[in-house]
Structure formats: structure tokens, C-alpha cells
Amino acid sequence: MQEHLRAFVAEHDQCVLKPIDGMAGRSIFRSHRGDQNLNVILETLTDNGRQFALAQRFIPEISAGDKRILMIDGEPVPFCLARIPGGDDFRGNLARGGRGVAQPLSERDRWICAQVGPELKRRGLIFVGLDVIGDWLTEINVTSPTGIVDIDAQTGTDIGALLFDAIESKLT
């Protein structure tokens, strides 16, 4: 596995490397072609080949935020939470000092939602968080899609009510 990750970094140069099961910005590294720390980063992330890790091309638009888009029964909530990196950290995670700013979905965000929403619904995934940086879908979170409290507080929405309505509609 490490050889595949190393090859990805060699091909794409600026990359983000992280554990496949991570959350809250834990153990996320930014690396690049020729990085003398790449081997130790991969050894650490994969526990010497015993754990999965992933590589993503670094997207400079992270400076404008890693947007969390909430999907309820295949449909997007009209606002997302842009998690904007703080200080000199490239990670936008709120647990790592990022700042959460609610904002309306862009046309591209809506297009991404339209592409994945029907499949999420078909699979019975009622509450999902999509992570979008710039124009790119980077993650689909099905275990810990956070952001409700911040979006509601900044926009006056009641996402919890929307979620419970969707759950209730499945039970009746």
C-alpha cells in the first residue's frame, strides 16, 4: 500500500495524506514530491502497512474553506459550513482551529449534490455529510456528519427538524 501512496505523491506533487478512518483533523499530513519525511509519514499513517490510509491531491482552495454540505434523504440542506483554516495550518477542521462560516450552496455544490444524492438515497443513507473543497468532492461522511449546530445558529434553520421529519417519513 505504501508504494501506491508514494507513487500518487510522485505523480501529483502537493498531496494530503490521512488515515481512512480519521476525523477532526487527526493525523492529516501535507506532503510533496521529494519530501524527505514522506517515508515516516507513510509508516506512521499505515502503522507500517497494517492500516489503510489515503492520498488526495492538495487543493489550494482550502484557504476559502472545506465545505461540509449536509444531505438529508438525498437532498442538500440549502446552507453549508465552510471550515476555514486558522493561522498557519492548512486544515480547516474546527477541532484544529478552523473557523466555521455558514454560507449558501454554490451552483457547483448543488451539481455535486445532484450527482451523489440519488445514490445516497438508494442506499438508504438518510443523513450524510459531503466535504467539498473548491470544485471537488473530497469525502462522503456517513458516520459523523457534523455542522448542524453551527449552520442553525448562523442561518436560523432547524436542520434537526428536517432530519427527524425524514426519519419519521420512513417509519410511517
Give short descriptive properties of this protein.
172 residues; alpha+beta; Dna Ligase, domain 1; D-amino Acid Aminotransferase, Chain A, domain 1; 2 domains; 5-stranded antiparallel β-sheet; 3-stranded antiparallel β-sheet; 33% helix
Fold and architecture overview:
33% of the residues lie in helices and 28% in strands. With 172 residues, it is of the alpha+beta class. It has two domains: 2-58, Dna Ligase, domain 1 (2-Layer Sandwich), CATH 3.30.1490; 61-171, ATP-grasp fold, B domain (D-amino Acid Aminotransferase, Chain A, domain 1), CATH 3.30.470.20. It has a five-stranded antiparallel beta sheet with strand order 6-5-4-7-8. It has a three-stranded antiparallel beta sheet with strand order 2-1-3, with helices on one face. Strand 7 and strand 8 (136-141) form a beta hairpin. The protein is globular. The relative contact order is 0.15.
List the helices and strands and how they pair.
Layout: H1 2-12, E1 15-19, E2 29-31, H2 38-46, E3 53-57, E4 66-72, E5 75-84, E6 99-104, H3 107-122, E7 127-133, E8 136-141, H4 148-155, H5 159-171
Antiparallel strand pairs: 1-2, 1-3, 4-5, 4-7, 5-6, 7-8
In summary, what is this structure?
The chain has helices spanning 2-12, 38-46, 107-122, 148-155, 159-171; strands at residues 15-19, 29-31, 53-57, 66-72, 75-84, 99-104, 127-133, 136-141.
